[in-house]
Amino acid sequence: MKTKQERFTLFVERLVAASAVGTHDEAFELICETLDGVEDEFSGIAANPATFQTDGRMYPPQPDSARRVPGQQGTIRYRSKAHNTIIGSNGAIRIETIGPKRTIVLEKLGANGEGLGI
């Protein structure tokens, strides 16, 4: 089994290596499948969304945490405990840490070769 940080690093590496996608829904699915795959393989913790706050497993962004990004047509931000996951209508993805010193962890272009533009 791997630590949460090791698993997060693997998740980011696999997202970087994945082919670019062209829509928000494809990007959301890519994130969910990639994170669930890493967690299934390396966490040793069975998926149980009801215990997401205490079980030590990482879970994908949830639709109830979705917020539109002002001034960015079709761009949606998903808030997690320590990260924002931002997805554009073109499939572009950004994951950034939350806090006073935000750090971009991942910036992935959409299939059209463009980023989020934010």
TrEMBL record:
Q: Where is this region: Disordered?
A: 51-73
> Superkingdom of this entry's organism?
Bacteria
Question: What is the name attached to this protein's record?
Answer: Uncharacterized protein
